[in-house]
Amino acid sequence: MIRAKFLTPDQRHELEQIVRRPSEDHGVARRANAILLLDDGKSCAVIAEFLYLDDDTVRNWHKHYVSGGLDQLTTFDWKGRLSFLNIAQKAGLSGWLEARMCRDTREIRAYIEATYGVRYSHSGCLKLLHHLGFEYRKPKALPRVSDEAEQQQFIDMYEDLLRQLPADEAVYFADAVHPEYQTRPAFGWMKKGSNTAVKTTAGRQRVNIHGALCLENFDAPFVEVTKVNGDSSVALLAKIEARNPTKSTIHVIWDNAPYHKCEQVRAWLSRSNCRINLIRLPTYCPHLNPIERLWAVMHHYVTHNRFYETQPQFAAAILAFFRQTIPFEWQNFRDKVTDNFRIISHQGFRVFE
After folding, report:
1. How many Å apart are CA 284 and CA 303, to the nearest integer?
2. Which class for 1: exposed (0-12), middle (13-18), buried (19 or more C-beta within 10 A)?
3. What is the pLDDT of residues 108-141, one digit of tens each?
4. Whole-model pTM over 0.85
5. Number of structural domains the chain divides into
6. What is the C-alpha separation between 141 and 138, in angstroms, rounded?
7. Residue 266 maps to which CATH number?
8. What is the C-alpha separation between 255 and 173, in angstroms, rounded?
């Protein structure tokens, strides 16, 4: 803690002249201003916040002024400071850092002091980390997926199916979605400096939709249900079949959710006149189901930056997307809902378990 009133009247007058002189160098004036504020009793942290500095910088300015006066304060020596760690120690520290994810510098500083007997300040540790090539950012979120061979096998199977698909067959992708009664803030162009906001809701109610999509004509049958289960799966399959009376076989591709392979579904598929052929997606591969992209479009149209006063209004907007937007506006977003599949791989990533 730096005590206040350490300046003599002459020293304070000299510094005040520097601060008020329009022709004074900006860097010198900032330093003089910081010394005056310290003399007024302000803390280094407070001064650093207002001057957009690090508090260690303010302490160093005070130390220079006390030891060398105004001459030391107005001297800018930009020579780099020698590192506390040698080359071998830096290499060891880099290896230690790469083996873990450190959230702040306290853990790193403690390790350096315990291992190398060197004490770093917060700002000094940040400079060292940047010097070693580290940066502060979040890791990418890698989804849990099937191995690459399974993904490629499904893609090959799907492409062969389309190449050999007769005119009296169709392919649908199906899944369930549960949009929650919540406003979703999303990026958009706003006036710089404007304080833009969107109202949010406190509700947790959901709209449960079990739907399907044919990429050939964007036919999107769906059922709204209280709960997604085996009964809703059967209802969806029946609706798909009813909307395709001229098709001899309808291939429905969906995931391995329990309600997609339960007893009700198996019993319904066992009918002698059943025209549905189920195809399972590889486990943990929603990126291979184009209907997931349709759900993203739904949120863009319905929930992004939109506030609904009541849950029934929200539910009505969701249903309007399926009943009106998809049938009449699907050409506006068909390029966002495609079967342009890619394989997700964990290769090339340093994955934390």
Report:
1. 26
2. exposed
3. 999 999 999 998 888 889 989 988 999 998 888 7
4. no
5. 3
6. 9
7. 3.30.420.10
8. 9
